[in-house]
Every structure is written in C-alpha cells, then in structure tokens.
Amino acid sequence: MTTQVTTTTDARRGSSFLRIAIALQTLTIFLQAVSAGLLLGSSYGETLHSVGARVMYGASMLYVFAAVLAWKPGGGSPRPVWHASGFLVLASVQVVLGIAHVPSVHLPLGVLMFGLSVLALSRR
C-alpha cells in the first residue's frame, strides 16, 4: 500500500515538473520571437536573440529530462519522451539555421515550434 501511494505521489510530482518544463519552453520560444523583432530595430537585439537561443535550447533539454522523470517512476507511456526529444531535434535544427543565417526556414520553424509547444502545454 505504501509503495502505491509513493508511486502515485512521484508520478504527480513528475507530471507537474513536466508541465512546468513545457511552460518554460513555450515562454522561451515566445521570447525568441520578441527578441527577433528587436533584432530588426535595435542594436542590442542580436545579443538578446543569441542569449535567448541558448536559454531556449536549455529549456528544450529540461523538457526531455522532465519527460523521462515523469515516465520512468510511474511506468506510464513513453510518448512525452518522444515529443520532448522531437522538440530537442527541432531546437537543434533551429540553432543551426540561425547560425547559418537562413531566415526563410528559421522563422517558419520558430512559429511551428511555438505552436507545437502551446499544443503540448494544453495537453498536459
């Protein structure tokens, strides 16, 4: 009985950590869109966008970590791990495209990532 209660509590804790990680990722992607706008009109926009890219990538890694923690103790579906891993791949592609200065793909991919992140957040 005690093991079941502990497992349920761990699963709830992992699930709320996962929700926080997705919310953080969604927020950082949104802030990247804001800093992209600043990039066009201010001298400090490039610095903000560059720092924001690192933070967004870190948030994507945190999402993977949170998904694994939510999946492993509770023995639930590994689907969130696959979703989080997909986001990490998209974030990696996004960083490469940004460094290569390919805005024709970089911008739409950012919009797609934001939409998918909002969708993931609404499902949690």
Structural summary, described in words:
The structure is a single chain. The protein is an all-alpha fold and 124 residues long. 88% of the residues lie in helices and 0% in strands. It has helices spanning 2-41, 45-71, 79-99, 103-123. Helix 1 (2-41) runs antiparallel to helix 2, helix 2 runs antiparallel to helix 3 and helix 3 (79-99) packs antiparallel against helix 4. The two termini are 27 Å apart.
Secondary-structure topology with pairs:
Blueprint: H1 2-41, H2 45-71, H3 79-99, H4 103-123
Largest sheet: none
Amino- and carboxy-terminal Cα gap: 27 Å
Topology order in helix (H) and strand (E) letters: HHHH
Strand content: under 5%
- Molecular shape: elongated
Q: What structural class should be given to the helix and strand makeup?
A: mainly alpha
Helix content: over 70%
**Total beta-strand segments:** 0
Radius of gyration: 16 Å
Q: On the 0-100 scale, what is the average pLDDT?
A: 89
Q: List the uncertain runs.
A: none
Individual helix count: 4
Provide a quick synopsis of the model.
This protein has 124 residues and is an all-alpha fold. Helix content is 88%, strand content 0%.
